[in-house]
Design the sequence.
């Protein structure tokens, strides 16, 4: 397994949020996490990313225990967190600048602008772009990290329904090229079905994996997604029971 979480627990001020959570993601797999509001999804991503210490349990990458911040993860939060005073190019090269390889980061960024729908906007500022474009810029910044696992926390949550649908199509199309292992937290059942190889449905607090659903489809498109009534209903009922 690329990523393995074993027996991870976490409590805040005496309230148990995660209790002996176990989950795993295979190399190159796209796994989505759905769960009731406030059950601890972001907390789990924060622990995996090493931003928050676990109260127990361990996180393994390629079979090795990881603690604290490691180069394995690139984390994209819900807000795009672009610096308004920096151009799109400078924003997406942020990690390259921090790591001292700005030149290489700029080359990679410029080569990727087209693929990320940002060609021609390199020297514009974030407030000159649409919400979807800003999310793509934030996504490019995440993708330019050398990290092999992308942690995406509701990356399209702030977008209107049309932009969100477009971003889902875009991510579905670009996923193979990215060639990364992806863990996505979402509130959107359709988003999880559309994008994932596997969906993990968490229980209410303390959260654990309540159900795991493998989504297998040769080819996916919006028509295919509309036909997934049974799957949608199944996930909805699991979430509603919580
Ligand atoms: N640093 C913290 N200190 C205290 N409590 C916290 C902290 N971080 C999160 N919590 C609490 O832990 C619980 C789980 O939060 P978390 O953000 O992980 O849930 P979530 O499932 O991602 O929520 P949502 O679905 O609303 O995005 C919440 O009740 C939250 O208030």
Sequence:
């Amino acid at each position: 397994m690329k990523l393995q979480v074993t027996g991870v627990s976490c409590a805040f001020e005496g309230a148990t949020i995660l209790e002996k959570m176990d989950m795993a993601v295979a190399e190159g797999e796209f796994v989505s996490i759905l769960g009731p509001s406030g059950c601890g999804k972001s907390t789990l991503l924060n622990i995996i990313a090493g931003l928050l210490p676990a109260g127990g349990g361990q996180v393994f990458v390629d079979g090795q225990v990881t603690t604290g911040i490691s180069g394995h993860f690139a984390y994209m939060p819900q807000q795009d967190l672009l610096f308004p005073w920096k151009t799109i190019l400078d924003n997406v090269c942020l990690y390259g600048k921090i790591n001292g390889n700005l030149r290489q980061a700029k080359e990679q960024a410029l080569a990727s602008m087209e693929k990320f729908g940002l060609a021609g906007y390199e020297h514009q500022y974030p407030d000159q772009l649409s919400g979807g474009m800003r999310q793509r810029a934030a996504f490019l910044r995440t993708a330019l990290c050398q990290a092999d696992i992308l942690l995406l926390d509701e990356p399209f949550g702030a977008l209107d329904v049309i932009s969100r649908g477009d971003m889902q199509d875009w991510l579905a199309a670009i996923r193979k090229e990215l060639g990364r292992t992806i863990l996505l937290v979402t509130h959107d059942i359709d988003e999880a079905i559309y994008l994932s190889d596997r969906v993990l449905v968490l229980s209410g607090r303390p959260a654990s994996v309540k159900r795991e659903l493998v989504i297998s489809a040769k080819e996916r498109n919006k028509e295919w997604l509309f036909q997934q009534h049974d799957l949608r209903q199944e996930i909805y009922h699991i979430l509603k029971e919580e």
Q: What stands out?
A: Residues 77-146 form one domain. Residues 161-178 form the longest helix (18 residues). The chain has two domains: 1-72+150-242, 77-146.
